[in-house]
Specification:
single chain, mainly alpha, two-stranded antiparallel sheet
Length: about 350
């Protein structure tokens, strides 16, 4: 008889004796009762195939039966992606979810960084209060840093997946921004966050360019895990293979989208800090922290205005920046059935 997993849609054959028994899906690992969810009679086979084809066409369901492979020759220009992303980001619901979700995810990441701070964070202070040896404190500090990398991966995964989901016509909401914390994908995203960050840091420390290359090449690793249920290394390699075919174009896109707002932000701060620095120089002596605090307090109104302008600038850009993920995902990957992903194990 033929069985179909109700969780990921993959089909296969099994002995008739399994009817009524609980089995585990070899693809997604979820369990189901054959008689209730997976049993199909022979005359239903055509209907199931049509249903699977419709599912694949309507938006690449999570962990669907088809295999995602890199497009051999991505056909797009930088201007094409920027134009499509602008049109994509004009959807009001998507733009609102992006802006609110990015702010909330940013708050979560700040909390994670605060809790896992290996020097002044509350967790390391608790460990220090136990009076443990110095070597134990070093190990705990290292573990907290690793945990921070992993949790950051979980936090960062939802926003690019939000864009991918929107691109293929599925409903999105604030919950989508936090999909990285669901039990189904938590472990894979946590491991990917650690491995990806370590490789990027290592590449940056050794030769600088490898770190820049990997930071772009692994940009789809996290959303691929949610969208396709891939394992960490599978997702990282699939992302790298696809992005490498158009790396310089994608790098140019992100220089434009993030570089220009960053430059404007720097210029705004420079105008303010230039005046602050001039006042510090007029003291005629080495400035102390109290002096700097006093000068900043005297310039609190322009400082607050500067921060608000920068925040408004990035708030405006958030939907546009995240829309790039959905558009590029559509351009770089294609679904195929019965194919193996070369080089991905």
């Amino acid at each position: 008889m033929k069985i179909v997993c109700p969780h990921c849609g993959i089909s296969g054959k099994a002995a008739d004796s399994l009817a009524g028994r609980e089995v585990g899906c070899p693809k997604c690992g979820e369990k189901f009762i054959v008689s209730e969810a997976g049993l199909e009679s022979d005359h239903e086979e055509c209907t199931s195939k049509e249903s699977a084809a419709t599912t694949a066409g309507n938006g690449r369901e999570e962990a669907s039966a088809d295999i995602l492979v890199p497009v051999e020759h991505p056909d797009f220009t930088v201007s094409d992606i920027l134009r499509e992303s602008w049109q994509f980001s004009r959807d009001r619901r998507f733009a609102l979810v992006c802006r609110v979700g990015t702010v909330l995810v940013g708050i979560v990441m700040v909390v994670i960084a605060w809790l896992t701070d290996s020097e002044d964070g509350p967790l390391i202070q608790i460990v220090e209060s136990l009076g443990l040896p110095a070597i134990a404190l070093i190990v705990c500090g290292f573990l907290l840093t690793v945990i921070s990398m992993g949790l950051s991966g979980n936090a960062q995964a939802g926003l690019p997946y939000l864009s991918v989901r929107q691109r293929f016509g599925k409903r999105v909401g604030i919950k989508t921004c936090f999909r990285g914390f669901t039990a189904r994908h938590f472990k894979a995203l946590f491991i990917t966050g650690i491995v990806k960050t370590l490789l990027i840091i290592l590449g940056g420390l050794l030769f600088i360019f490898p770190g820049i290359y990997l930071s772009i090449a692994y940009m789809f690793a996290l959303p691929l895990i949610i969208d396709r249920g891939l394992k960490p290394w599978q997702a990282m390699e699939l992302s790298r293979l696809a992005v490498t075919k158009a790396w310089f174009r994608i790098f140019a896109i992100y220089i434009i989208l993030t570089g220009l707002p960053a430059l404007l932000s720097f210029l705004l701060f420079y105008q303010l800090l230039g005046g602050v620095w001039q006042q510090i120089g007029q003291l005629g002596r080495v400035a102390k922290m109290d002096d700097i605090v006093t000068i900043l307090s005297a310039n609190s109104s322009p400082l607050l205005l500067c921060i608000l302008l920068i925040f408004a600038l990035w708030l405006f850009m958030f939907p546009y920046i995240w829309a790039i993920y959905g558009v590029l995902y559509d351009k770089l990957f294609t679904a195929s059935k019965g194919l193996r992903q070369e080089g991905i194990k």
